[in-house]
Amino acid sequence: MVSTAKDPVLAVLSLSGGNDGLNTVIPRNNGHYRDFRPTIGVPEEQILPINDELGFHPTMAPLMKYWEAGQLAVFVGIGYPTPSYSHFRSMDIWHTCEPEIIGTEGWLGRAAKLMDPTAENVLTSVNFGRGLPRALVMEGVPVASVGNLETYGLLTGIDGEAQRSDALDVFGRMYAPAIGTGSVMDYIHSTGTDALKGADILATAPDKYTSNVEYSGTVVGQYMKNIAQTHLADFGTRILYTTSPYNGFDSHANQAQANAALWTDVSSTVDTFYTDLRDHNASDNVTLFLFTEFGRRVADNGSGTDHGAAGVALAVGEHVKGGVYGVYPSLAPADQEEGGNLKFNLDFRSVYSTFLEDWFGLEAEPIVNGNFERVKFFK
Fold this sequence. Notes:
Blueprint: E1 9-14, E2 25-27, H1 31-36, E3 48-49, E4 54-56, H2 64-68, E5 72-79, H3 87-96, H4 107-115, E6 125-128, E7 143-146, H5 161-179, H6 183-202, H7 205-208, H8 219-232, E8 239-243, H9 255-279, E9 286-291, E10 311-316, E11 323-325, E12 346-347, H10 348-359, H11 365-368
Parallel strand pairs: 1-8, 1-9, 5-11, 5-12, 6-7, 6-8
Antiparallel strand pairs: 2-4, 3-4, 5-10, 9-10
């Protein structure tokens, strides 16, 4: 386990829709890349070289400082066996580590359960965005899921603990005819109570926060700002999660322009986020992980790319050992998955196992449902 002055924290930015790994980390000297991508291939002179074979998309310039400082890990060929090309199914697999069956428990939910077995802290895990990512789901694990940090909270307009408890009882009775009573009702009341506690605590975060940086006004920018605010408020939060706008990276058409805008936002926001934390001397114990549910097809369709298999993920942080991990998949037609997709060679559960064991100090096998060789991308 990496030693830090404070408890290690993992922030996750999910790139919803299937980010195009081939145009994110580009095999710049590969002739097949030019052959298969006559329309959306990035011009060679615009690519930002990171080694003799690979380079970043030009919009990723704000991340080059982290690469050059050895604080950016790049995972290529990342995926899992028998890939699903469904957004929902593939994301579920990444969330639950269950490629064979439909899982219900999330890998980060299991991790949170081990970090806080009795749920003493209702803010051990916080999600920013609508709904609750399955990665965070685990029975007995409270998760604050925040749509807007400034106005967050269930029933927060009701003053007084007794009044709010009464309101929760009324809320529960509304559902009683449909779901019965007993343990289900207890669960609803417990969840509501945890939400109220979390809301009261989180509501103090913006007032505690001052900064010299300005985040973009996009969804990604504002939720990463919320993550910084929550971390800087010292609530003991260990897992901070957010997702880019739904299926924004699903680039079937107009990919060159759309993805350039998306990565301009993501790259600048990541840089703003770490600059913010460093200005507050609060960056040492935070690692940021960026992933997507699958990559894109090798060949472009004349305007964009269709759903693929192996993709790219990134980890950023002061304890990250920068470099390229995994082997870039072959673009040769004979080496592609059926349908023209890249074959994976780095199982995402190996990366998860590294986060769990080397960052959080937890046993990975019961969380990821198997024994996967760690990638060892921490210093």
